[in-house]
Amino acid sequence: ARWDAVNNDILRKRAAAVQQPFPALGELQAIVGQEIEFQSRLWQSDFEGAVEAAEGVLGGLTDPDLRGYRALWHYLAGSAAWYGGRAGIASLDVKARGHFNHAKRAATDLPWLVKLARYHADMEAPLGRSPRLLRQIERVEGVLERLGTVTDREFNKREREILEGLASKNGFEQAQVRLGEILGFHAGKREVDASPDPWWAADDLCFVFEDHAGATNDVLDATKARQAFSHPNWIRDHVALPDNAIILPVLVTPVTKAKSGAVPHLHTVSLWEIDEFREWAGQALRTLRQLRRTFSQAGDLVWRAEAAERFEQDGMGADQIYKWLKGRIASGILQSIP
Q1: What is the domain partition of the chain in residue ranges?
Q2: Which of these, 266, 291, 312, 254, lies nearest to 132 by C-alpha position?
Q3: What are the tens digits of pLDDT across the range 61-90?
Q4: Which superkingdom does the taxonomy of this entry point to (predicted)?
């Protein structure tokens, strides 16, 4: 009888109790996949991948109650970057110092983090690349800094905006501007009478686009061809470029044919088939994501050298894009029809 009374008392208290939800449980659940990815990458000695996964975790930890857990993951990210630096990935040394510094600020009662935050590896590497490409890479650094280097939240958002925009008709042009910006071009688009679609400029080299994302048939008419042909004149009058700038009009379109009246206007216009453009854009963003793994701050000469090499290899530099497009003159590709 005595036990029954005790048991009933326990049941009454349990019924009256209100369970308090664990702080930020949703955030902790959402990052489990990235936490597992971090462990897997680290086990494989893929230190760049481990740092990227750790930054994915940090991007999901926004609740103030998780400050201590953020400190832990900054420490883990810094440790993975430190091991990467020891394995010969010199640009990860800078990233290690950055994460250790963030860990120190988040966990001020751990004095040993202060010493880690002062960690610095001496490194310097000559670049030896074209000045135009190096200035393009410098602008990429600025974009990556603005999007944040500690977490990948803003980078993911911008990447998603670009890919979704390029896949649509109405959002294509704005996404093209954002793509140009994230790839280090001075990119723009003005909604005024007779203005072209977006343009990308790198010093004295400019690509001006005539986008045909909303094409309703497989034939380019003379009006569209004349628009593309005349865009360099508009650029010279409205965009600040050197007097000797090279301006290349580029037609981005799904069509495979052109009216015979359109062909004479296409002898100086390059053609970028729209699905090829989308595929190239996706690959460029993947390359940039890989480079972002080892980016910590602007001015890292080792990172710049690596980025310049990847931009050249993957056809993302202004010079490489120009060379490729000059071999794709629209009048020689589109089939002329009456």
Answers
A1: 19-122, 147-337
A2: 312
A3: 888 888 888 888 888 988 888 888 878 787
A4: Bacteria
